[in-house]
Design a protein that fits this description.
single chain, alpha+beta, 14 strands
Amino acid sequence: MSSIGVNFERLRKSVEWSIRQLETPRKKRVEAVKQFVGMHYAQNGSEKRVPTNFIELAVTIYKQMLAARAPRVLVSTQIGALRPYAKDMEIALNQIPDEIGLGETLQAAVVEAMFSLGVVKVGIAGSGKTEYGVEYGEPFVDLVSLDDYFFDMSAKNRDGIQYEGNDYWMDVDTARVAFNDNGIAPDEHTTDGQDAQTRAESISQDPGADVYGDRVWVRDVYLPRINKLVSYGVKSQKVFRVIDWDGSLHGPYHKLSFSDVPGNVLPLPPAALWIDLHELGNSLFRKLGKQADAKKTVAAFVGGSDEGADNLKKAADGDGITYNGQKPENITVGGIDAPTLAFYIQIKDLFSYFAGNLDTLGGLSPMSDTVGQDKLLSEAANSRVQQMSERTVDFAKKIFRSLAWYEWTDPVRKRNIVKRPMPGVAVEIRKQWSMETRDGDFLDYNFDIDVFSMRDNSRSTKLQKFGTAMERFVYPLLPMLSEQGGRINLQKVMAFVAQFSNVPELEDIVEFVEPTGQPQLPDGNPQPSFKPTSTTRRYERVNRPGATRHGKDDVMSRLLLGGKVQNVEAASLGTGVS
């Protein structure tokens, strides 16, 4: 292979060495995933019960905040003559996420980054179907787990890696067509990795999988310095192809991580910071559960009163019995240990703290007694999320740039796009976006991501955004809107509220009839309005004792440890969290 710039035997040995170095990180990832799924997911989940699954809670909250939906790309250019073409490209590229399920892939990548490293493979099917079942000529963005991904572990930073790649199972017939080699033989399929390493799918699958069709275990290795892509059989060690990489300048692999480690390529995943508190909290909670289950209350009798004791045991509630001797006493044995319960509450709060204040991020409960204080806490907590969000957006931006490259260089693919000359104008311009209609050079265009499109956009969220927009922008400008002939269509407002609040009956309750006109005086002149031209509002701040989850936990911990609390604090324990 030296004739084409690749020493295959040396490359293969180096790759296998890097895979062995990844054995421990892969194992740690699987252990964290088992805690994530708990004991009741599948046969190989957590060995012990996970009654308070802190990791699942944190991962779900961050996934929703970082990649709730597929992003939208914004395309611009500094060349004025190319701006119409930039808009065409923007419309065309925004068709791709729905076609390839990009939103789901980004969510999966965010979840993977919580446990290890989020990796996706971006490309275009060159012949037949890819290992992911993508048709010829179609772009794909597919998740690559750490079980399958590898990279040069001798590097100190990402720019210094000499190779990276991934393993995958491919149908033998597809492999023979893709690599133009009818001599490719099938491999025995297994869910164990190389050297029988534990993989995440082993949580729900047995090591020996009984697959329907024959498959071959393929390994792709990308060499960025010489711009080569090598594919060979993992078990057979047979080279299938060595080609020049002619795709995106970013290469086929895009990585997402949230915390870099100095001098190391492998990042520090959030789950690695959470796992100890998660396991400690669940261990304490299981212990408290055993103590609560072992608690019992029994009636103690004085010796010699067997007849009375027997009557008492047989009597139902409210029955009268004959009983002689000393009155029996209740004896309570066991029960929850108060310091242990207080310690568990502290562990729960510590997990929320190290996870970035989950109560605020997830909207689980207010953290203070006033809305203003909660807003300040939310903004402080969001500083951590902001950094993670920026990395996710940069990750998505590189993916879109690679997709744009494949779309731009595709000589065959044609897309139909619809443009509106002006916002609010019903006229549509339909045109075709293809190699013949594109103009300029690919490097003339800039790509950006609409960050807000990645956030939650459910009906309730849209309704909340609508109310905020009306309150902040529409209502204050009503006088100027009236002067310029603008008005609010209340019928459409009520239809919107009925639809997005999921209360369709609202449209039947609120009826619109023909306006009767402005009231007139007997002389025919319009009745003057007695609404004051200016109004005065007075705001009073009233402090009321509130009950937050954090505050109640603090009071409970002090009580359990024998401390003293004020009457107001003690009263808050009986108040619901609002």
